[in-house]
C-alpha cells in the first residue's frame, strides 16, 4: 500500500533548498580561511601534547544523537562516580577541551570570523556568483555591446 505522505522531490527525496539569505548565513558560519587553520595546525603539530588540532574533540554528552543514553536510570550514578556529571570532558581530556574552547587558536579564529576575515564573496557565494556581474564591452562610443563582443569571438574562432 503506497504511503500517503507526500515528498517534495519524488526522485531524490531531499529537503528543499534554503533561501539565499539562510545559505549565506550558513556559509559565513564556517571557518573559511584555510591558510590560517593550516598554519595553526602545522605550528602546534610540533608540540606535545597535540593541542592544536583543527577538528574539535568529541564529547558524547554534548552529542544530541546519544543524549537519550545518558538519561537511563543508573547513568547519573555512574557519571557522578567518574566525575563526569556536569557535562564531562572529551575523550582527549580536560586540557584539550580547555585549549579548544578558550585557547589561543580559538581566540584567533573567532576574532577573525567576527571581523569577517576569510569570508570573501568568491569563496562564500560559490557557483551562484558565476557571470552575475558581467558588463558589456564597449569598443567605439556605443556601437558594440556584449552580443557584438561574443559575435566577434565566434568569428575569430571560425576563421
Automatic annotation (TrEMBL):
Name of a matching Pfam family: SPMAP1-like
Highest taxon of source: Eukaryota
Protein name: Uncharacterized protein
Originating species: Octopus vulgaris (Common octopus)
Record lineage: Eukaryota, Metazoa, Spiralia, Lophotrochozoa, Mollusca
